């Protein structure tokens, strides 16, 4: 049975501003290649995979996906066959120019490219059946890896070592990670979710599928124009954060969340004396791909 080591990540003090303490939970440090929350989301899914009679794990993602990267790395580490269905046919000829896909392929993941149009059907029965005809009896992980077992894994992010914080902050893609965090939060804690997407109204429903708790709130003002969109202000913030606190952030999730937290502190959103814990969900592999795009446009790159 695949057994991930039981890991409690490190709480690191970042700064104190206006009597508000900010700490960071270093989930990014728990594994070199199965990074951060993706490690948590995979653990119980890999066990379920092993219990069944599957011959591979199949999942979906964009060309820079942290999830694709983590699943391929898990495949390599545990000797499992993995298949990645990648959004965008045009990328197939440019795998070598994309560090995420090159990594996934080197880990042994079989990459299959489909059009953006086709990709939208990825949750439909018909579409899945076609994939089964093509790839055989696979264990299906949805895009981003979110399902009940992923949420269960993310319930292990918090613990006794985090119980004295007042606010837990977490970046959101599909909502799986924050759902696990909410489920294992203390009654006196409030979890704040920072969506990386522009249209995040649907997330309330998504999160409510996985939790019955109500001690949480979405902070939807820090998407910077949408998923994977960045501007100079965000990039400067990430570089300054690195030079001041020696912690790397990536621009899709954690950079935007921390930018938001600092702005909320400035706006006195948090009561005086609050202790905030921001979860570093990892994903640093994405920096290389982002920098490549920024360099082409002569923009600031992430150091
Ligand atoms: C995938 C990812 C998230 C979002 O997690 P969800 O469970 O999809 O909400 C947040 N941060 C990082 C770094 C990620 O890679």
UniProtKB/TrEMBL annotation:
Output the Pfam families linked to this UniProt entry: PALP
Instruction: Report the protein name in the record.
Output: 1-aminocyclopropane-1-carboxylate deaminase
In alphabetical order, the GO MF annotations are: D-cysteine desulfhydrase activity
Q: Record's family?
A: Belongs to the ACC deaminase/D-cysteine desulfhydrase family.
Q: Keyword Transmembrane on this protein?
A: no
User: Which UniProt key words apply to this protein?
Assistant: Pyridoxal phosphate
What cofactor does this one take? pyridoxal 5'-phosphate
Q: Which domain of life is it from?
A: Bacteria
């Amino acid at each position: 049975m695949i057994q991930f080591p039981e890991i409690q990540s490190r709480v690191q003090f970042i700064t104190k501003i206006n009597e508000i303490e900010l700490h960071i939970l270093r989930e990014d440090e728990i594994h070199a290649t199965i990074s951060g929350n993706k490690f948590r989301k995979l653990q119980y899914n890999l066990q379920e995979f092993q219990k069944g009679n599957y011959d591979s794990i199949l999942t979906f993602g964009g060309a820079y996906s942290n999830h694709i990267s983590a699943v391929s790395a898990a495949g390599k580490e545990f000797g499992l066959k993995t298949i990645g269905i990648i959004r965008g046919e045009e990328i197939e000829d440019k795998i070598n120019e994309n560090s995420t896909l090159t990594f996934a392929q080197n880990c042994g993941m079989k990459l299959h490219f489909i059009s953006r149009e086709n990709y939208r059907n990825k949750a439909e029965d018909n579409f899945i059946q076609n994939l089964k005809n093509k790839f055989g009896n696979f264990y299906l992980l949805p895009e981003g890896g979110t399902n009940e077992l992923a949420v269960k894994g993310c319930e292990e992010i918090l613990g006794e070592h985090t119980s004295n914080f007042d606010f837990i902050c977490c970046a959101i893609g599909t909502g799986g990670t924050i759902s696990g965090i909410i489920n294992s939060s203390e009654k006196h804690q409030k979890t704040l979710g920072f969506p990386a997407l522009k249209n995040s109204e649907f997330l309330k429903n998504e999160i409510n599928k996985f939790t019955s708790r109500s001690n949480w709130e979405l902070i939807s003002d820090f998407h910077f124009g949408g998923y994977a969109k960045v501007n100079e202000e965000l990039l400067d913030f990430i570089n300054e954060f690195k030079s001041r606190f020696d912690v790397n952030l990536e621009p899709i999730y954690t950079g935007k969340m921390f930018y938001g937290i600092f702005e909320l502190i400035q706006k006195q959103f948090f009561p005086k004396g609050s202790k905030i814990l921001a979860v570093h969900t990892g994903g640093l592999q994405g920096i290389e791909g982002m920098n490549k795009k920024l360099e082409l446009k002569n923009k600031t790159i992430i150091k």
